[in-house]
Predict the 3D structure of the following.
Amino acid sequence: MTLLALEDVACHFTTPAGVVRAVDGITLKIDPGETLALVGESGCGKSTLAWLILGLHPLTRGRISFKGQDISRLRGRGAKGFRARVQAVFQDPYSSLNPRLKVRTILAEPLLAHGAARRGVAAKINRALSLVGLPEMSADLYPHEFSGGQRQRIAIARALILEPDLVVLDEPISALDVSIRAQMLNLLQDLQGELGLAYLLIAHDLALVEHAARRVAVMYLGEIVEDGRTEALFDRPQHPYTQALLAAVPRPDPAHPRATGQIHGEVATALAPPSGCRFHPRCPKCMDVCTKTAPETTIVATEHQARCHLLDSRHVPGTRRGTIVG
Ligand SMILES: Nc1ncnc2c1ncn2[C@@H]1O[C@H](COP(=O)(O)OP(=O)(O)O)[C@@H](O)[C@H]1O
Ligand SMILES: [Mg+2]
């Protein structure tokens, strides 16, 4: 059974400057035990989507269901039960841990809030610390006594302590020192194997997710422009935005040469998204239709789809579908 399903999910913020369409019609699903990566530039709505899944923002439109149950309608015990099943690790381990609390209290909080018996708490804290590779004595220290990487391990321990089914990882390594990023990703993968967790792994560059995710969804200005199995998306990217993101990933593998794609300019703002295809002002393959009409989703292969007019054969006589010619 599908673990998490989003159907046409939107979140618009009303601000003094106007309506920000941070998330604008997203459909995706995550199966038990799998990693879906969500990739896109800063400001495209990734964290807003994470907050929607965690129930921290109201939905403007659409539906989110967990194990088949509509979570936006859950109240009281049902809502609390769901919140225990879905946990999160955020980007900055410095601001996500309360500096005034010892690690023991930080880890006990979710257990006690969800009605765990006090007797079992110490053992659960020790197990969570050992899972993330920290010694038991860490429980008696404060967050500032740890390095950034160790703090992120504490944040992961806190996310795991209620034995969730899904962990939303919102750029979990981008604030960490480059030298420890790989080891943190490995830890997350080991934990996934050991505990059968599903991950939504949010990242702003594709390089990070190639070996960590089974499927990848590429996000641009509140929408998913392409999603597919990781290998298919890396080998046969269909959307010019995916192609451009991939061109920025160094990959010294002659068997898989990169398509070259140039994108210019800054990501537009979700306050006034461009007409037609939202990517058109930056797209090296922009056609007349792209400025006027939003593209439909085209299924290009099993579990691989993209939203681009290039995939609509009526508009590309004689060219290979979706390929950027350097
Ligand atoms: N609470 C909010 N109120 C108004 N605008 C917001 C709010 N949260 C996020 N935004 C805007 O929504 C867009 C998406 O932001 P965010 O989800 O943080 O993107 P990302 O995580 O991909 O960098 C941005 O334009 C951001 O300024
Ligand atoms: Mg973010």
